[in-house]
Amino acid sequence: MTDVMNRIGIDLGGTKTEGIVLDGAGHVLARRRVATPRGDYDGTLSTIRDLVGTLERETAGGGRATVGVGIPGIVSPATGLVKNANSTWLIGRPFDRDLATALGRPVRVENDANCLAVSEAVDGAGAGAGVVFAAIVGTGCGAGIVAHGHVLSGRNAVGGEWGHNPLPWPRDDERPGPACYCGKRGCLETFVSGPAVAADHRRVSGADLTMEGIVAEAADGKADALATLDRLADRLARGLAAVVNLLDPDVIVLGGGLSNVEALYAELPPRIETYAFSDRIDTPVRRAVHGDSSGVRGAAWLWRPEEAAGA
């Protein structure tokens, strides 16, 4: 019989896999991180199986809990196989079914950005909001949508793939845009992700800096770095204004490395209002409350109490 009070969340990343146990109130009972066996599908299944076992022994004397997993991709509704995964060894595999077999119980598998959105909608920056749009802006650029407690992954499981839309209202010097790994050019991800901002700074200023270096130089008042962050804020605002025009969420939550750029929270709201199709926009833009833990917490929250009772 599954213990409906405890939920295990797993965040499968490219280099590390994190596991967490939450009780019914969302309190953290245990947390562990282990290395992800890159390129090893069977090893990935074994790693998660062993991590779940360890977490259960630490918190419930070996009792069973529900298990939710966030992955950098999604299970295709058409084939039942993983698609769009940065962890390429998962692509084309029936990951959810294989993991359920390995664990001997049902599992919930969701995109990691959707897990961020779930976490922040339940007890984070979007708690109490009807519609939450949560974007991960870091190494890549993705997003998740939660509407009234439910993930909107969509008919084709690509809901929230915000980063693979074109940059809205591109200027002449932004066309056709940098090449994207998806095969197209000018995707939002090629402008507002951490590596994209570093590349933009290098193109314009000639200086080879990381995103952290750009932020540090901006704090010191360096003109080139300030100009780079200004371009970032404008492009991010254009991308979010398109979201407001289409979805009109109650709150926008930012996660990932760029969510730590403090200036964005003052810069974005008035810029979004400039681009959005409305006389007034009062949508708040907030930093993810749970930070790097949002994904793993959201994976744990994929099971609701009434669903867990029959798992």
Largest sheet: 5 strands, mixed
Q: What's the average pLDDT?
A: 92
Assembly of the depicted chains: single chain
Secondary-structure class: alpha/beta
Q: Output the strand order for the largest sheet.
A: 3-2-1-4-7
Characterise this structure.
β1 and β2 form a beta hairpin. The protein has helices at 41-60, 95-103, 112-123, 189-192, 194-205, 211-219, 223-246, 264-275, 294-300, 305-308; strands spanning 3-12, 16-22, 28-35, 65-71, 74-75, 82-83, 108-111, 131-137, 141-147, 150-151, 251-255, 285-287. The chain has 311 residues and is α/β, with parallel strands linked by helices. The chain has a five-stranded mixed β-sheet. It has ten helices and twelve strands. α3 crosses α9, α6 packs across α7 and α7 (223-246) crosses α8. Helices cover 36% and strands 21% of the residues. The mean pLDDT is 92.
Secondary structure layout:
Elements: E1 3-12, E2 16-22, E3 28-35, H1 41-60, E4 65-71, E5 74-75, E6 82-83, H2 95-103, E7 108-111, H3 112-123, E8 131-137, E9 141-147, E10 150-151, H4 189-192, H5 194-205, H6 211-219, H7 223-246, E11 251-255, H8 264-275, E12 285-287, H9 294-300, H10 305-308
Parallel strand pairs: 1-4, 4-7, 8-11, 11-12
Antiparallel strand pairs: 1-2, 2-3, 5-6, 8-9, 9-10
Helix pairs in contact: 1-2, 3-9, 5-7, 6-7, 7-8
